[in-house]
Design a protein that fits this description.
It is an enzyme of class 3 (hydrolase). The chain has 1006 residues and is of the alpha+beta class. Among the domains are: 72-348, Immunoglobulin-like (Sandwich); 789-1005, Immunoglobulin-like (Sandwich).
């Protein structure tokens, strides 16, 4: 069986039970009878039928506790594979059309450090395109001698083809060489600079059935980015371990959390001798304003879904995996933007094109108790005139937390249908949550039927134990089973389940949660215990006794002293009571150490212990030996569950709502997930620190090819406050995905709760909604070319090493610079204006005047509460429409343009327009906008007919008052204004009689 903790759970439960069952279930592990309890029942009316259900039994906390493990990176006595393993020798090297192949033989006696050494490996080197080099090392044969070894199939995660190589592959700026002395190693060199970008020289390749290790040298103070998902600064530290294991954990700093993206971007800066052209590698910590620099960026993607670690050490990166293969892809760049394009184009796919309405503001919380409360939230936003595009429901709407059901006492279908008719009529949308585990009914309760489980069970779509029985964990509804997305009927069952729910509640998108995949107990804890279902999780829900939400943001005691003191006192009392109820152990538990048994693969306790945030890999997750239909264990596929459910959901929605682009926000992701879904940052905390880190989170997901990213604005866990929510609502207005969401029982934090937050939100939303055409165009470019939507300053100004670590500012596309206030009590922001030393101009969004700044200067910018500094990059033409209440209203309003001239009086821009909804577009329109020499040209191409007129054009950086302003050669005498102080030319009321892009036009000033 999969690891069982049910015995321990029942022992703890026996002291709580009121009576003993007369017919205990069989212990499926040992064949003996297991102790069970009599279950009390209550009744509820569901869809007009009286249904009985059990009084929730609380799963003991011990059920989610694993053995005491010491991660290898924290164990000073751990075996060092580099010191004891022999490495490999290469032989039988054969040239191919795309590179070469070879065989690697173990170069000495097997070390069996953390598994069974593989004697013979297959080596393949392929130059696959003008920008991609592939290195593959995997077992040469898979038989009983090499033990089971799972190689990630292309059917689950795209594998770039080694087939017919691109004709321009010889143009790649990468070259690989290998050596056999003293053992096999290889180098990858950038040909144009001679820089060695990957080098395993001086290290040993270790390849075992449960452990792979390889090392690459890195320069001093290197600049690495990516390697997610975790809460961390944007630039990765040079002494830091990244763990790749999907974990249900509430955003701990530096720990592994929901998703896995094993790619890094390595940016290297060179000092350039302007006379000789020679380059010298420098660090970003030691630069001078008087020196010319160049940068080169390359990417390295390790296509492996097993649990992994990457040790970022001062002189190297050491990769360690618990299985799989070495499947490396090198992308030559030479810029971050180019690496990302190459990564998406060749390896993971371009991000999805989302519907236009998804760019509006979304409101959610865990704790909306019924349709009336949800409708009240929608109506209150309208009353305060704060734009609201989409209302979301967390698990409150479900009957007993069961997927694809509505509680008919609080969220009945008929009332929901009426609410959604009204919502949709107002151009607004609705999204419910769907969890990743399926409730399994209580066999002793005939009325506890659940068709979603029954139909899935009949189609055999759930994970199993090694003996073939169903794997039964525990999540929100109680004991649950888990879909096996590789089973042949899983997609059909999932689509049917979504359709049955959509037929009753016409939702517009889906929110996928708990998809790491999470389970609240170790092992198949529901086996033999289903008569207790539904059960309560092994922890208190927020708001329950002992779990009241009593924390506040930094500095709350300074602004709300009395309330903060009361909360602190209550929190101390709660902590003391919890300590009395569950006193900490006074005994020191010895660490569990799993020894290597040659010829045996131990998936439950692998000999190498990763630094998993939850400890043992089965804690708060489905156990490693849960088994898929094809016999593959969860050990080999754990990190893929989140990606697979997103993919299944995409295809389900495409069937349920035909032709329209599915909108999905998911929690757990893997490389390639952006092609089907967006992502939110998970269970963050209402602290300024998390608001700050949200920028680095978003920039990372840009690197991972998931531009539709946002966080729980104002914070999820804990209580927010007025100042934090004020600042955060403004910051998130410039993130691609914009949603406010918080935890059950915490204080309400909708944008209208505080007057200052309402005003600040409307101010920032006015900017966002006016720029929706710009944002939508950015998504189109990302979808078609792989560019980014939200950008680091470093990416747009790649030759400035002072920007390498900037994560308190960001760019929205190439043209909008956001410099937020990220700390409590601050009334000023600090930021740099990149490129000013090279002539780049920046304009203040609000005054429209040019900014005065020096190269590298950290400028202090006034930013009282309710103001977020925003700037426009010179050289940009920005499209705008009037910011109205919904995205539909906004995109049906008149057009305006802002032409922010650069130092040469020029600017360019583009608009992409389509119907905003459908996957396949019969008609599209692209508008090119160019300003130069006192003239703005607009040229459209395409057949989509946009009916909105052109209202206004604003030109920034006009040095003197024009003597004549003309539109298509006709002088304009009304609506023209010039501000000599700000140097802004404003032309209003241009053409209200015809569509703006129906014909090309010219606006001139001289």
């Amino acid at each position: 069986m999969a690891r069982l903790n049910w015995k321990r759970a029942l022992l703890a439960a026996s002291s709580l039970a009121s009576a003993q069952s007369s017919t205990p279930p069989a212990d499926s592990l040992s064949g003996t009878a297991a102790t069970s309890t009599t279950v009390e029942y209550q009744t509820a009316t569901v869809s007009g039928t009286v249904t009985s259900y059990s009084v929730a039994f609380t799963v003991p906390a011990q059920a989610d506790v694993g053995p005491n493990l010491l991660p290898n990176i924290k164990d000073p006595n751990a075996k060092q594979a580099q010191a004891i393993c022999p490495g490999y020798k290469a032989s039988d090297i054969q040239k191919t059309d795309t590179g070469f192949t070879g065989t690697l033989h173990l170069a000495g006696e097997a070390c069996n450090a953390y598994g069974t050494d593989i004697d013979t490996l297959k080596l393949e080197i392929n130059y696959q395109s003008a920008h991609r080099l592939h290195v593959s090392i995997e077992p040469a044969y898979l038989d009983s001698k090499n033990i089971s070894h799972y190689i990630l199939p292309s059917e689950l995660v795209n594998k770039p083809s080694n087939g017919i190589v691109s004709s321009n592959a010889q143009d790649i700026d990468l070259q690989l060489s290998y050596s056999n002395e003293p053992s096999f190693s290889f180098k990858v060199v950038r040909k144009s600079t001679g820089d060695v970008i990957f080098d395993t020289t001086g290290s040993q390749l270790v390849y075992e059935n449960q452990y792979i290790e390889f090392v690459s040298q890195l320069p001093e103070n290197y600049n690495l980015y990516g390697m997610g998902e975790r809460m961390h600064g944007f630039r990765l530290d040079n002494n830091f371990t990244t763990t790749f294991f999907a974990a249900d954990a509430g955003d701990p700093i530096d720990g592994n959390i929901y998703g896995n993206h094993p790619i890094y971007y390595d940016t290297r800066y060179y000092e350039v001798d302007t006379e000789t052209g020679e380059r010298k590698l420098v660090t970003s910590q030691n630069v001078s304003a008087d020196v010319e620099y160049e940068s080169y960026t390359h990417g390295v993607y390790q296509r492996n879904a097993h649990a992994m670690e990457a040790l970022l050490l001062p002189t190297n990166i050491t990769w360690r995996s618990l299985g799989g293969s070495i499947d490396l892809y090198f992308f030559d760049g030479p810029t971050v933007e180019e690496v990302l394009k190459q990564y998406q184009h060749g390896a993971i796919g371009y991000p999805a094109m989302h519907q236009y309405w998804t760019l509006g503001f979304h409101q959610c919380r865990w704790g909306y108790k019924n349709w009336s409360q949800v409708e009240e939230v929608v109506d209150t936003y309208r009353a305060f005139n704060i734009p609201l595009e989409t209302i979301w429901n967390d698990i409150d709407y479900m009957f007993q937390y069961r997927d694809f059901t509505n509680d008919q006492n609080t969220f009945p279908y008929d009332a929901g249908e009426k609410f959604l008719e009204k919502l949709h009529a107002n151009g607004q949308h609705y999204i419910p949550i769907v969890d990743s585990a399926i409730y399994i009914p209580n066999p002793d309760n005939a009325s506890d039927a659940y068709s979603i489980y029954t139909e899935g069970n009949n189609k055999d779509v759930f994970l199993k134990n090694p003996d073939g029985s169903q794997y039964i964990g525990s999540v929100w509804p109680g004991y649950t089973v888990f879909p096996d997305w590789t089973s042949e009927n899983a997609q059909e069952w999932w689509t049917d389940s979504m359709k049955s729910h959509h037929d009753k509640i016409a939702w517009d998108g889906i929110w996928i949660d708990m998809s790491e995949v999470s389970s609240f107990c170790v092992g198949s804890c529901g086996t033999g215990n289903l008569s207790q279902n539904p059960v309560h999780p092994p922890f208190g829900l927020p708001g329950e006794e002992g779990s009241k939400v009593l924390t506040y943001p930094e500095g709350f005691n300074l602004t709300n002293a009395t309330e903060a003191a009361a909360a602190a006192s209550a929190d101390a009392s709660q902590s003391a009571a919890n300590a009395l109820a569950d006193p900490p152990s006074t005994t020191t538990m010895p660490y569990f150490i799993s020894e290597v048994t040659p010829g045996v693969r131990n998936v439950n306790q692998p000999p190498y212990v990763i630094n998993n945030v939850n400890g043992d890999m089965a804690v708060h997750a489905v156990s490693p030996n849960a088994t898929h239909w094809d016999g593959v264990e969860e050990y080999d596929r754990h990190n893929l569950f989140g990606y697979e459910i997103l993919n299944a959901t995409y295809h389900a929605i495409a069937s349920v709502i035909p032709n329209k682009r599915p909108f999905i926000i998911g929690r757990s992701t893997f490389a390639g997930a952006g092609a089907v879904a967006g992502h939110w940052g998970g269970d963050n905390t209402s602290l300024f620190a998390y608001m700050y880190l949200s920028i680095a989170q978003a920039l990372n997901f840009s690197l991972f090819g998931i531009p539709m990213f946002g966080v729980d604005t104002c914070g999820f866990n804990g209580n927010s406050d007025e100042e934090l929510c004020n600042r955060w609502m403004q910051l998130s207005a410039f993130f691609p995905f914009y949603r406010n969401h918080n935890v059950l029982s915490a204080n309400s934090q909708e944008a209208y709760v505080w007057d200052s937050v309402a005003k600040a939100s409307k101010k920032a939303m006015n900017i966002r909604y006016s720029l929706l055409p710009y944002m939508y165009t950015l998504f189109y470019e990302a979808h078609t070319t792989g560019t980014t939507v939200m950008r680091a300053l470093q990416w747009e100004f790649p030759n400035d090493p002072t920007l390498a670590n900037i994560d308190n500012q960001f760019l929205l596309g190439p043209s909008i610079l956001v410099t937020p206030v990220l700390g409590q009590g601050l009334t000023e922001a600090k930021g740099v204006f990149p490129g000013v030393g090279k002539g780049t101009k920046w304009y203040d969004w609000y005054t429209q005047a040019a900014v005065e700044a020096k190269q590298g200067e950290n400028v202090t910018i006034p930013a009282p509460l309710g103001h977020i500094p925003v700037f426009i990059r010179g050289g940009s033409v920005l499209p705008q429409q009037e910011p109205r209440y919904t995205t539909t209203e906004s995109r049906n309003s008149p057009w305006s343009l802002i032409a922010a001239l650069d130092a040469h009086g020029s600017a360019t821009g583009q608009i992409y327009i389509d119907d905003g909804e459908y996957i396949k577009q019969e008609h599209t329109l692209i508008v090119d906008l160019t300003a130069s020499n006192g003239t703005l040209y607009a040229t459209a191409r395409g057949t989509y007919q946009d009916k909105n007129c052109l209202a206004n054009v604003t030109v920034l950086g006009v040095p003197s008052k024009p003597t004549r302003v003309a539109f298509n050669g006709q002088e304009i005498t009304n609506g023209v204004n010039y501000n000599g102080t700000s140097q802004v030319l404003s032309v209003k009321g241009l053409d209200s009689s015809s569509p703006a892009w129906a014909a090309d036009w010219v606006l001139s000033w001289n």
